Amino acid sequence: MGNLLHTLVSTSIFVLLGLVLFAIAFLVILKVTPFSIRKEIETDQNTSLAIIIGSVFIGIALIISAAIHG
């Protein structure tokens, strides 16, 4: 039972850390771009921008998972 609790706590910490890093990455992307990302993706149907942002998130996810795995 103690091992399960330890696993749940460490998983929760890594989930929170990952969510915080994703939020920081998205805020950096919002600040760096000179245009409205929401307008470009929703109104102008700019799928290439959505693919780039998705690729950034996948890259961050790979970095986080590598750091967790050791």
**Count of all domains:** 1
- The number of distinct helices, counting runs of at least 4 residues, comes to 3
Shape: elongated
Strand content: under 5%
Q: Give the radius of gyration.
A: 16 Å
Describe, in plain words, how this protein is organized in 3D.
The structure is a single chain. The chain has 70 residues and is mainly α. The chain has one domain. It is 87% helix and 0% strand. The protein is built from three helices and no strands. It is elongated and about 55 Å long. The model has no long low-confidence stretch (mean pLDDT 88).
Compile the SSE list and pairings.
Blueprint: H1 2-32, H2 37-43, H3 47-69
Helix pairs in contact: 1-3
Compact description:
With 70 residues, the chain is an all-alpha fold. The protein has one domain.
What descriptors fit this protein?
elongated, mainly alpha, 70 residues, 87% helix
